[in-house]
Design a protein that fits this description.
By secondary structure, this protein is of the alpha/beta class. It is 35% helix and 22% strand.
């Protein structure tokens, strides 16, 4: 299977689901070609709303549409939409609106565009809201399954997608289960917890470590909230070398923080090492 960016999967999937779900509407803040919401716009122009560079207004309009029985998917870069936290907090979270925020171009994986375009604090913001679901798919199968799930989810949700292409990490026939981490590789020497764009690297690390006689468990965390605490507690108890978390996000408030919280509250004294962004992102290729 050819690697595919999850933003592309979003565009293709939402356009397909639009055929059988007339309640779906899509709004974008002047970035439809980048977020791939333009694929829905071409197919259903009467259900697509180009809001211009007005993310705050887009959030308010979507909340009203949700109140009228629609299922709005609102799209922008993750850094731009998370920057409208006040509107998200009051119009979506406080009102428990069935709005799906799609934040694309997440993390330093977007490359040369630099910090101004990199969503590096968005997960921390969204996790702090009491009823906000936070989902970050690790491949095309997971992304398509998550979007289909979001048609029935009650309450606001944040879907984080990538600009860069991701290798498929799940097997054909994979079924998305909201709130349930996926163990991709067996191992009890150490556990690697990854999410979104870092999952493919975790799988490669498993193979490299295996060649050295180290058996690393790989856990794909597609749902960051609600977090599968039991998966972290189980790994902390069973993996003698502890847990390594890897995320394309600030080291505070994301996957590493979720694992740390689960271990502490579960009374597990496992060693934890977090790998993420410390400081600000810089311009460069994703590989750099």
């Amino acid at each position: 299977m050819t690697a595919k960016a999850t933003r592309q999967v979003f565009g293709e999937t939402i356009a397909k689901l639009g055929e059988t779900h007339p309640e779906i509407v899509v709004l974008d803040a002047d970035l439809s070609k980048s977020t791939k919401s333009d694929l829905f716009a071409k197919k259903f122009p009467d259900r697509f709303f180009e809001m211009g560079i007005q993310e705050a207004n887009m959030i308010g309009v979507a909340a009203g549409m949700a109140g009228a029985g629609r299922i709005p998917f609102i799209c922008s870069f993750a850094c731009f939409i998370a920057g409208r936290f006040d509107q998200i907090r009051l119009s979506l979270a406080y009102g428990n609106a069935n709005v799906r925020i799609v934040g694309s171009h997440a993390g330093v994986g977007i490359g040369e565009d630099g910090y101004s375009q990199q969503g590096l604090e968005d997960i921390a913001c969204m996790r702090s809201l009491a009823n906000m679901a936070v989902i970050q798919p690790g491949d095309d199968l997971e992304c398509a399954g998550a979007i289909e799930y979001l048609l029935t989810h009650q309450g606001p949700a944040f879907l984080r997608t990538t600009r860069q292409s991701l290798e498929r990490v799940n097997a054909e026939g994979y079924q998305f289960q909201f709130g349930k981490a996926v163990q991709l590789r067996e191992g009890a020497d150490v556990a690697i917890f990854a999410t979104g764009g870092t999952v493919q690297g975790a799988v490669r690390a498993h193979e490299a470590l295996k060649a050295s006689g180290i058996h690393a468990r790989v856990v794909n965390v597609h749902t960051l909230k609600p977090f599968d605490a039991e998966a972290a507690i189980k790994a902390g108890r069973e993996c003698k070398g502890g847990i390594l978390t890897v995320e394309d996000h600030q080291i505070i408030g994301g996957l590493g923080s979720a694992v740390a919280e689960a271990l502490a509250e579960g009374g597990v004294g496992a060693r934890l090492h977090r790998v993420g962004i410390e400081g600000f992102g810089e311009s460069g290729t994703p590989e750099e």
